[in-house]
Design goal:
With 133 residues, the chain is α+β, with helices and mostly antiparallel strands. 22% of the residues lie in helices and 31% in strands. The strands form 2 sheets. It has a 6-stranded antiparallel β-sheet. It is globular.
Length: 133
């Protein structure tokens, strides 16, 4: 596992306690944090929702399978799936190698106000520090 200081935690996204992130401007993209991909290990399969699926904050919308485990993707926002990243279906390790770029998971149609309940980078780092102890 990476040390907290080694994690790539950009400040241009908002974070969720379940380790997903959402970009702060449209198109709103969602992915998993560097912490999450590091904890999961090498991804082997990504189960993506259908375009048009309704997302409900706090509910599962897909899964990530790695060599270590199967983990649910929990939606940090309410919205509708606008696009899925087909590249990660064929090449799941993009999520590991570039979680904030080529490894994004879905695009969401949502109200910008959905971001208000999410964490900025400082609050997310604090959450990670507290969970490490």
């Amino acid at each position: 596992m990476k040390e907290l200081s080694e994690l790539n935690l950009p400040s241009n996204v908002k974070y969720h306690e379940e380790h997903e992130w959402v970009s702060q401007s449209a198109p709103f993209r969602l992915g998993i944090s560097d912490f999450a991909q590091d904890a999961l290990g090498a991804l082997t399969f990504v189960e993506l929702p259908e375009v048009g699926a309704k997302l409900v904050r706090g509910e599962e919308f897909g899964t990530l399978e790695s060599t270590k485990s199967v983990s649910p993707l929990i939606s940090p926002v309410n919205g509708t799936v606008k696009a899925v990243n087909e590249a990660i279906a064929d090449n799941p390790d993009l999520v590991n190698s570039d979680p904030y770029g080529e490894g994004w998971i879905i695009e969401i149609e949502m109200a910008a106000s959905e971001l208000e309940a999410m964490l900025d980078v400082a609050a997310y780092k604090k959450l990670l520090e507290e969970s490490a102890h």
